[in-house]
Specification:
Length: 242
């Protein structure tokens, strides 16, 4: 599989989905592609970077740090998109530009404290469990205001918006509805908190290889796409990260 040509295809698909957006309550028009490089080699990332890709998403801290060390000369925006363990918050706060899966005050506080010495605040998305799956991380929409109010006051975090991973078994119509609910939640936050926020919330991180076109039509501003760019992931039993 040729990474440059898969990337071009994904970008093409992003562009055509952007033409068909429902523009009500949209926070911004552009769509950022985050190439999800978990289980991919540093050389695969290098290849995508050479083809113009700047944002990369990783799920596992140690795996990401290894690749970042190999690629330190590249001006990559690193996104942490995996579940956040509290003993990994220092490494995450110091080695990433964005963290997408924040769903607890305690984790936010630890990221804030560890980010302290850096000049730029860490960009944060709050994860919503929009399909209300028992096994998923993320908070229920009813818990959103209290988490936003806590993060708003943390000086080293910049709340940018919301992230979700809907139940992949949902029918298209249901998925579409849940993406729309996410857009409405973000709109509500901007309306409700307005100038209390460091900046207006401009990010809806939703959509993966199987559903990013649909997510964009419903207002996604960041899509996290892995296998459609890099092909199947190959973790084997000895290399599986923790
Ligand atoms: C792995 C992963 C993705 C990418 O999944 P693909 O189906 O390969 O596009 C996106 N978001 C999160 C949170 C992931 O863990």
């Amino acid at each position: 599989m040729n990474i440059a040509s898969s990337l071009a295809q994904v970008r093409e698909c992003i562009n055509s989905a952007s033409q068909q957006r429902d523009r009500s309550h949209m926070v911004q028009d552009s769509v950022t592609l985050v190439a999800v490089s978990k289980a991919q080699s540093a050389s695969a990332i290098r290849e995508a970077f050479a083809a113009g890709q700047k944002d990369f998403g990783e799920n596992y801290v140690q795996e990401a740090l290894n690749k970042q060390a190999e690629l330190s000369e590249l001006a990559i925006n690193w996104h942490f998109i995996g579940p956040i363990q509290s003993n990994k918050t220092t490494a995450i706060a110091q080695h990433f530009d964005w963290v997408h899966g924040v769903d607890r005050i305690k984790i936010a506080q630890r990221l804030n404290d560890a980010r302290g010495m850096h000049s730029e605040p860490l960009n944060i998305c709050i994860q919503i469990n929009i399909s209300a799956e028992a096994s998923k991380s993320g908070i229920a929409p009813e818990q959103l205001n209290s988490l936003v109010e806590a993060i708003m006051h943390m000086p080293h975090l910049c709340l940018r918006g919301l992230m979700t991973i809907p139940d992949p078994s949902l029918a298209q119509s249901q998925l579409s509805l849940q993406f729309t609910q996410m857009r409405n939640l973000l709109h509500h936050l901007n309306d409700h908190y307005g100038s209390q926020l460091k900046q207006p919330l401009d990010t809806l991180s939703m959509g993966m290889s199987s559903d990013y076109a649909l997510a964009i039509q419903q207002g996604a501003t960041m899509v996290r796409v892995g296998s459609a760019i890099f092909g199947q992931r190959h973790y084997n039993s000895t290399s599986a990260p923790t």
